[in-house]
Amino acid sequence: MWLHLTATPERTDNGETLWHGHLVDITKQKEFEQKIEKLAYYDTLTSLPKRSVAQDKLMATVASCNRREEFASLLFIDLDNFKTLNDTKGHEAGDELLKQVAQRLQGLIRTSDMVARYGGDEFVVIIDNLGKDQIDAKDKAASFANKVLNSFRDSFDLGMIDHSCSPSIGVAMIDPSLPSAEELLSQADNAMYQAKKNGQNNYVIFGANCSGENTLSTNYGDDLTGAVTRDEFQLLFQPQLNNKGIITGAEAFIRWNHPKNGILSPGEFMPTAEKSGIIVEINNWVIDQAIMQLAKWQLSEATSKLRLAINISIQQFSTKDFANQLEAKLFKAGIDRSLLTFELTESVLNRSVDRVRSKMLEIKKCGIRFALDDFGIGSTSLASLSNLPFDQVKIDGFLVSAIESESQSRSLIEGILGIAKALDLEVVGEHLGNSYQEKFLHERGCALAQGFYYYPPMDIASFELLDELKPTQNRLRAVG
Q1: How far is it, in rounded angstroms, from Cα 464 to Cα 113?
Q2: CB–CB of 429/441 below 8 Å?
Q3: What angle do CA 132, 127, 42 make, to 5 degrees?
Q4: Co-location of 360 and 251 in the same domain
Q5: Which residue of the set 43, 113, 121, 175 is catalytic?
């Protein structure tokens, strides 16, 4: 109920003040104003903000990034073959699809982010608070784009039909040097069209090369061929610390030292690598490097117990002879196999649970561990998680970054920790950014954490020079 109160003072003969109040119920008036506002600013079909609201949010985000010297991202999403659905099944089916797509996108974001219907079958998503490191911000943007792709894997129930739909996604990075919202929209739109040209159902990150000329980040197909042989890839290592501040291991991140465009993050070249099949060759290189690094660490008492986690692609995981090849590599290296962890994203779990379980058990016979990456806002069900032989879950970095601002994120994290305890799974918090997040996770039993609050990803020489890895020091020296 809305009430409007007016009060008028009157001075009495004895000098006291008497107030005359007038109370009016204006609930209907307010409801009417809210309806008018919703019609003006929100799409009547999807209930998402309209284009004008998204443009205002984008300008505010650009200004905020300039002020804070931080990064954010803009995603431009277009539904593939939407016109065909409208033409063959009617506009009612198309409208129902748009409503369900809006619901799925809304379920992926935090309250600090925004999903808007930009027009027709186009949506924009603004992801804020991606941190101060450019490459890390690109990785987070790519991670979110993958979440969007994964959210479309399940078909849409349009009443009489079960419809499969895919998106083409263009990503533009919002950084302190780009003041123009119009330019960002143009970049994201161009990247989206490039994603369609690349075969749809994928994303493209718009970037800039060393000469400052705008380029699309997936134009690397020819360059990727032979990149492993030319030794153009490198691994960076981000320490993982327990709640006592002791480094227990690291996650390895791949970077591509492109001959012309410099250091590229996985989000800029992995989509092309996956489509071309080169991803298997790249993953084999990562596995070889990880095993070799663990073998070196085991030669020193200070590093002999360090764990190392690496990401494994769906293609690599599904390779028929993968387990036998891995066993041969591990046997030759003679390392403690339990120190090697393979991280799988939730997209692997969109496949048959029985098939995934069988493949995981086959690989686990080699003695390695499995971690479920980016857990928290994907589509993994508790039943799927309990039936699969994971050793560890990693809390999605978007949830961790929203600990201070969003009660929903805090509740989800507490739920994840409760599930993990019930299933006897170790938990890692990703993208830790400050002491408040650290305290929240530690107080609720999160065993491990990693993020820029501790250390950024670094080359192996810098990693091995950390004071925490020296025998005389075990405590964390915070550098964030």
Answers
A1: 38
A2: yes
A3: 150
A4: yes
A5: 121
Same domain, 272 and 185: no
Q: Based on the structure, what is the number of domains in the chain?
A: 3
DSSP state of 160: S
Tell me what pLDDT residue 216 has: 55
- Tell me which residue of 55, 80, 153, 72 sits closest to 109, measured CA to CA: 72
- Residue 233: phi, psi to the nearest 5? -95, 155
Instruction: Centre a 10 Å sphere on the Cβ of residue 92 and count the other Cβ atoms it contains.
Output: 12
From residue 350, alpha-carbon distances to 152, 310, 354 in Å are 11, 21, 11
Q: Rounded to two decimals, what is the model's pTM?
A: 0.76
Nearest residue to 468 (alpha-carbon basis) of 253, 295, 306, 335: 306
Do 250 and 320 belong to one domain? yes
Residue-range definition of the domain harbouring residue 420: 231-469
User: Rounded to the nearest 10 degrees, how much is the dihedral formed by the CA atoms of 416, 349, 146, 441?
Assistant: 10
pLDDT level of residue 32 (50, 70, 90 thresholds): confident
pLDDT tens column, 131-163? 888 888 888 898 899 889 988 988 899 988 889
Give pLDDT tens digits for 193-207.
988 888 888 898 886
* Chosen domain end from 216, 251, 279: 216
- Chosen domain end from 192, 216, 240: 216
121 noted as active-site residue: yes
